[in-house]
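Chapter summary example.
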Amino acid sequence: MDILKLPKSELHCHLDGSMNLEIVRELSGNPSIIRDQLRAEPDCISLAEYLEKFELPIQCIQSEEGLMKAAYSLIGDVAKENLRYIEVRFAPMQSVHEKLSCRAVIESVIRGLKKGYEDFGVYSNVIVCAMRHHSPEQNLTMLKIARELLDEGVCAFDLAGDEAAFLNSGFRDLFAEARRLDMPFTIHSGECGSVANVREAMELGARRIGHGVALMQDQSLIQEYARRRIGLEMCPTSNLQTKAIKNWDDYPLLDFLKHDVLLSVNTDNRTVSDTTVTKELELVYESCNQDDVIYKLLHNSIEMAFAADQTKHELLKEL
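The structure predicted for these 319 residues follows.
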């Protein structure tokens, strides 16, 4: 099965964790940066260690030009493996300062993605991330600004950061406001072993969750996720690196599929994890050797997407 040639979608891809070496060198003005400075080791200790690799690329997206170029560069990269649609997520407030407003930050990324569509033909949307360590005021401000751009390049809202240190239960007011504003959202949940966070995300009304590995701890919750068609944005290589799972043999993806859980396969961070959607799907294929599983995952990714119905229709026709 030639997965590279298949038309693919990606729903969980962080902009800062997916900036290639060339664009980081260009935007930083430092040609001596090496790939290892951007890439996590396969045997890194934890999610906290993994997140350290974001410091350098975040420094490169502190201007409208940097944000636009980073987004455009990413579309050029994903086009090489025949991605037809991607939801690019990032935390706008990490680029906000006295010379750059939150709205300008988001609009700069949208401009880069739109230019990418013009040159490479890849559909895209933005998922804006609130950060767990940011203040409630910061996260609420960002949510309200992003809501004004919904369907103008923004498709959804997310919560990211150190899940172990800041539980989902601490953000109930934030997601109550998201529901009031009719803002679609996903939540990073179950990446650090907390099935309580997975349950909380469901109760908060998430249409999808990022990673969701800890769902495997609760059979009744697996059934409820399947019944409600709550999507799991799974990221195998990243999950192994951050110790969400000890080894591939324990990875619950195929078991989730057997229970009819809606899930897709994603990179999380293309550069930090040194991966592509093609590589991730090849990992799955090696473990099951079933073409229908791969096609199921590709269809799931379209079904789960926060894209407009017309875009989904076009993607399904290609597939």
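To summarize the output: The chain is about 45% helix and 15% strand.
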